[in-house]
Structures are given as C-alpha cells and as structure tokens.
Amino acid sequence: MKTAINILMTLLLMAAMAYHYTGQMWHEITGTAMFVLFVVHNALNYRWYRSLLKGKYNAARILMTVTNALLVIDILLLMLSGMSISFYVFKFLPDSVSLPSARSIHLIASYAGFLLISFHIGLHMRGVFGKIWNKIRLFSEKQKGLGFIRGLFVLLVAAACFYGIYAFKERNFWGYISGSTMFAFFDYSESPVWFFLDYAAIMLFMAVSAFLLQKLSAAGGRAVIIGIKRHVSAHKVRCSVIAGAVVLAVLFFFLFGASYVRRHFQTVNIDRAQAVSTERIDMKGKKGIIVYFTRVGNTAFAEGVDAVSSASLMTDGANLIGNSELLSEMIANATVFPVYAIKTKNKYSSSYTATVIEAGKDLRGERPVELEDDVPELSEYDTVILVYPLWWGTLPVAVQKFLTESRLEGKTLYSLVTHGGGGFGSALQDTPKWTAARVSNAALSVYDDEVTAALPKIVSWLEKIADN
Ligand SMILES: Cc1cc2nc3c(=O)[nH]c(=O)nc-3n(C[C@H](O)[C@H](O)[C@H](O)COP(=O)(O)O)c2cc1C
C-alpha cells in the first residue's frame, strides 16, 4: 500500500509539473490529489514524527530530518498558495483568502518541491538501489565474463545523472527556485517525451545525489559523532540539531522569499519626467513609429491601486504607468517618433494572477482577443519600434493581432521586450510568424525591476538602430 501510494504520488508530481499539457483544471486536480496522498503518506509514516525527539542524530539522520522538514513546509506553502490562486477546485473560497504573491510562492515552491521530493526519494532508495545492485552483481558473477554489466550499469546511471544536471540548467530550475525568474516558461510545441525525460533525469540526479550523500554522511558522521560524544552530552547534540534545522528553514524562506516580497508588495512612486528625459538622438532620416502594449492600459483596475492584488505597479502620483508605456515614452523623447498604444476590447482582470491565467487562455485560443481600434495607417513609416511585455514566454496575443492586422511589408521591426526574468523567451523567434516586416536581430530586453533606470540602455540601443 505504502509503495503504491509513493509511486502514485511520483506520477502525480510529474503530471502537476506538466502544467502546459494538462491545463489549469487538471493541474489543480492533480495538485489536490497529491496533497491528499501527502497527508496519507504522513499518516502512514507517523512514527517518524513520534521519534523526532528520540534517539541519536547521526549525520545521515540529520540529512533526512532537514530534508523532510523543508519538504513539509514546502508542500504546505504549495497547497496554501495553490488554494489561493485556484480557479476550479477551490473556487468556493472567499476572495479574502487570496494571498498576495501567492502565484510567485506557488511557482518557487513547486520547483523547490520537485527537487526536495526527488531528494527525499533518494534518501529512501537504499533498499531499492541495493536490491537492483545485488541482482546485477549476482547475475554478472554467475554468468562468467559478464562482469562488465556492473560497469555498464554504473556508467548508464552516471550518464543519466549528468544529463539531469544539463536538464536542470536548461529548464531554468535555479531561476525558479531562487525567485529570479517569476514566470514558468513552457514550450507548447515541445514533445511531451522530451519534457518527461528531462524531468525524470533531474529526479534521478537528485535521488542519486541524496543516496550518495547519505552513504557518505553515514560513514563520515560516525567518525564525527564519536568525536562529539567525548565532549558534548547527547541532549545538547539533539538541541543543536533541532536549532540547526530551524535556522536552515528560516534561511530557506529568506533566500527565496526576499526577491518576490520586494517586487510584489508595493506600488512604486516614480518621477516620470526625470525617468524619461533625455537628449534627442539623430535617427539619420529614419521614419519611425513606436507601438506599445502594456498590461496597465488594458486592465479593468478597481478604484484604488491598493485593491490590485500582488501587482508591482508604477505610479507618477496621478496615474498608473505600465513598464512598456514608460519605455515607449523614453524612446519617444529621444526620437520624437509618434506613439501608438495597442488596446484590447475586452480588458484583463485587475488581479495579477487572474491576468496571468487569462493571458494563458488567450494563447490557447480559449479567450477571444480583439483590438479596440482598427490598426493605424503605417505607410509613411519605414521603422516600427515594438514595445511589449513578455507574456508566457512570448508576445501577448494582442501584439500578435496587431502584427497580423497591420501591413508591415518592407518595414523594419525592432523589438523591445520587458520581462520578469524570462528575457526574450521565444518572442523573437515567434515574431516572424505574425508579420511580414523584416524583424531585426537588434532587439533589446529590459528586466521589469530595471525599467525606471533603463534610459541609458535605450539610448545606446537607439543609436545602434539609427546606424543600422
Ligand atoms: C499575463 C502576464 C504574463 C507574464 N509572463 C511572463 C513570462 O512568461 N516571463 C517573464 O519573464 N515575465 C512575464 N510577465 C512579467 C512581465 O513581462 C513584466 O512584468 C513586464 O515588465 C510587464 O510590462 P507591462 O507593465 O508593460 O505590462 C508576465 C506578466 C503578465 C501580466
């Protein structure tokens, strides 16, 4: 029964990570099912809690205890944040339950949880790895001359682990768990086979690391404990271990918590005139227009800014300002090009989380996106500077629409993408799908935290465009 539950949990974990294949509703269902099984798993293993304050703590046990403690905290955060941003399973909860930054917490906790669960599995794999290893050993000893099978096994596992490290980097795990990447990037066109292979390799890498670390710590720990025993009482060791675990847990939250708290709890007051004021640049005869799209101008905000949940917004005291809007103003001041704002007919919700989900629906064609006005006549321009936020790793559907509806043949398009850590995502590769314009490689990306201070970057970018 225990093994069946563990296997089911692992499968559900994989399904929950594959949000882009399952969609929002199944993601919520798998996540909730996982949490229920997590509770059952804990109930079945209640002895672990009972024995927490008993017995000796060697290094291997400390490793296990710290991992489990972090895992419990992580899963609770994952579930609470998930409930707070739920659209289906916990829809019945009142709005007041909605936590600010729940989406970011959920993102960080999900990737950290995946790694912790994989590590936790590795700590319990002694029996399984041992059995496999013994079978291979016995087989290769019986079948004379097949000793190389053992070597082959080790080589295969090592290769899969190295691939896991590569996948960890390629899948941007560090960006997610450190909070520096605020949005999960999903490649909708990718085959699920690669996705699951990569995640399985990362899981294997974490599990094997845990297994080896446990072996090492068991051996090394014995030597240390003999040393400690000579000087310190068992009670003191226990207390230090618990204090250590608490300190680690607190560190964990400060490390991963600080960045999103900073970004998402306040509306920033800016000096608009100062942020955009610059010398005029000679654009060397280019006839350009600036076209931008921003969340702020396309959102049905509630009355007070404070009512906007988990949004990092800028204001000049009187108006809310979108990042793309401010960047466009910088360009306009430097070039004296006219500015056109893309507006959608149906506005996005004032909640940041809801907007993120709505934008995902836009991309999957589940929510109609129409432009408020007909696209403007652009025949007099040869240069279009397109400014927009990265949404789900690509161009917002409204921007795609603008591009398809405009006649841009023969014009050069320069992209300025503002983002929350995802850089250009796949936006630059995707742009030619939507336009006949020549899409220049001279594109610029600006991190959302750095928008107000982006003027020097913008100026040197425009100088390059002028010389192009
Ligand atoms: C619906 C939505 C989706 C987003 N998706 C991403 C993303 O995939 N990657 C990323 O780095 N940032 C993402 N962001 C963050 C924005 O790109 C970033 O905050 C940008 O500076 C906002 O610009 P704006 O104020 O002009 O809308 C997203 C924001 C929203 C509202």
Shape: elongated
Enumerate the distinct ligands: flavin mononucleotide
Percent of sequence in beta strands:
5-15%
What average pLDDT do the residues reach?
85
Q: What is the helix/strand order?
A: HHHHHHHHHHEHEEEHEHEHEHEEH
Judged by helices, strands and strand pairing, the structural class is alpha/beta
Question: How many β strands by DSSP?
Answer: 9
**Major sheet attributes:** 6 strands, parallel
**Low-confidence stretches at least 5 residues in length (pLDDT < 50)?**
306-311
The count of domains is 2
Radius of gyration from the alpha-carbon trace, in angstroms: 27 Å
How many helices does DSSP assign?
Answer: 16
How much helicity do the residues have?
Answer: 55-70%
Assembly state of the chains shown: single chain
> Termini separation (Å)?
67 Å
Would you spell out the secondary-structure blueprint of this structure?
Elements: H1 2-17, H2 19-44, H3 46-50, H4 59-84, H5 102-123, H6 126-142, H7 148-170, H8 173-177, H9 192-231, H10 234-264, E1 268-269, H11 272-276, E2 288-292, E3 314-315, E4 320-321, H12 323-335, E5 339-341, H13 352-363, E6 383-389, H14 397-405, E7 412-419, H15 427-430, E8 438-439, E9 444-447, H16 455-467
Parallel strand pairs: 1-3, 2-5, 2-6, 6-7, 7-8, 7-9
Antiparallel strand pairs: 3-4
Helix pairs in contact: 1-2, 4-5, 4-9, 4-10, 5-9, 6-7, 7-9, 12-16
Residues 182-183, 185, 294-296, 322-324, 355-356, 359, 389-393, 418-422, 425, 448 line the site of flavin mononucleotide.
